[in-house]
Amino acid sequence: MAVIKNRIKISASYNSFIKEIIRLEKFDFQNHQKFNSNKITKAQLELMVESIFFAGFRSYEGFIREIFILYCLEKKTLSKKNIKSYLKPKNFEHSEQLLKSSMPFLDWTSPESIIARSELYLEDGYPIKLPYTTNLQQLKDYKRLRNHIAHNSVESEIQYEKLVRAYNSGVRPMVIPTPGKFLMLTSRLNPRNYLLLDFFDLMKQISIDMT
User: Fold this and answer.
1) Residues of the chain with pLDDT under 50
2) What is the pTM of this model?
3) How many degrees, rounded to 5, is the angle at CA 90 between CA 122 and CA 131?
4) Please, which domain of life does this record's source organism belong to (predicted)?
């Protein structure tokens, strides 16, 4: 999802994000059908799964950025609930500038940072804090996965291995799976899902909870 700096409605941001998540879900389903029909290889499918997750996470970064800035402008939720902001920005761009302060950029990948930011700028952190604290571990895990795909550094690999170990009840597998292969493992939350589908489910639910 392209980041649009002048969005003025929570509904527009939400609808755009959900549209993108549904598009990615459909693309993933089509890729699995192609694999089952021997039109693509397992390696190609794994790479596509990895790319779909990364695209979904990037879209989510844009979504949380947009709605947070709009809530600082005291835009109402989709259910018309009022928001109390401690900032008094003039417009979208000014709101983001105030949030940045002297920082070169804002990190929208870290759940801990977003929780702290919501406590600082929104009364009771509403409506951001509760959905984040409720889903904190999953969000932290997805950030680890996102960072490993994006950076593939020594540190990101260490964090990714911790994620793999946690899935395997603390046991390190003989071979650490690629992110794409990992995302195709059976869900621990819903046996009918694989892990990428858990990600989609959380994205849809948390976006509802925050809007």
Assistant:
1) 1-4
2) 0.93
3) 25
4) Bacteria
